[in-house]
Amino acid sequence: MCENHQICIGFGWVKASGEKAENHYTIINEKGDEISDFVKIHPFSIAHEERYFVKGNKLSTFKLKGRGLATFICYDLRFPAIFQALGDEIEIVIVPANWPKKRREHWKCLLQARAIENQVYVLGVNCVGNMGGLEYSGDSCVINPNGEIIEIIEGNEGIIYADIEKNVKDIRDSFQVRQDRRTEFYKSLF
Q1: What's the angle, vertex CA 21, arms to CA 15 and CA 24, rounded to 5?
Q2: DSSP classification of residue 76
Q3: Which residue among 126, 160, 167, 176 sits deepest, i.e. has the most Cβ atoms within 10 Å of its Cβ?
Q4: Three-class secondary structure of residue 54 per DSSP
Q5: Tens of pLDDT along 71-116?
């Protein structure tokens, strides 16, 4: 499909890992090659995911048309330290999720916070409809580095087309918040 339509496709899937499984998000490029494979770092313990899924232990970054991208999955969104660990080369972060409607404001707010904190574009991809008794609102969106939602789909399936400018470096240069991070000090707190 990627080759036929000259597009990249990201998809979630599960891989057996001993007596448990790994929650993956993989991206295939327009040539049909795997360019990213991420394993969810934080299983959602409230839903007892840790009983069934192992924890991922590495970040997944990749280049696409000269731009640095990274992926996380769903509940990982609540842990800002892993986003901050990505570094200056990342311009776009993709977060696919099964985020329920009852916490939709958390979803949007956290996506915006990660965009602002890291001065990146964030692509939030969420399911919509009723699945297994849970209602999902969608709220798939594109958020710019200033935290502004530039495109969103609420309550429906669909495709978002958005211009993602090549302005991350300019934003970071004009408001140099990242240089004031005290990474070594933060490590000493834990």
Answers
A1: 50
A2: G
A3: 126
A4: coil
A5: 999 999 999 999 999 989 999 999 999 999 999 999 999 999 999 9
Instruction: Return left, alpha or beta for 48; rule: phi > 0 is left, psi -120 to 50 is alpha, else beta.
Output: left
Nearest to 7 by CA among 159, 124, 153, 117: 159
Residues 6+ apart with CB under 8 A from 135: 100, 101, 102, 129
User: Cα separations (Å) of 118 from 17, 66, 115, 181?
Assistant: 32, 19, 6, 11
Tell me which residue of 171, 173, 174, 170 sits closest to 148, measured CA to CA.
171
Answering whether pTM is above 0.90, one says yes
Buried b (16+ CB within 10 A) or exposed e, 97-119: bbbbbeebeebbebbbbbbbbbb
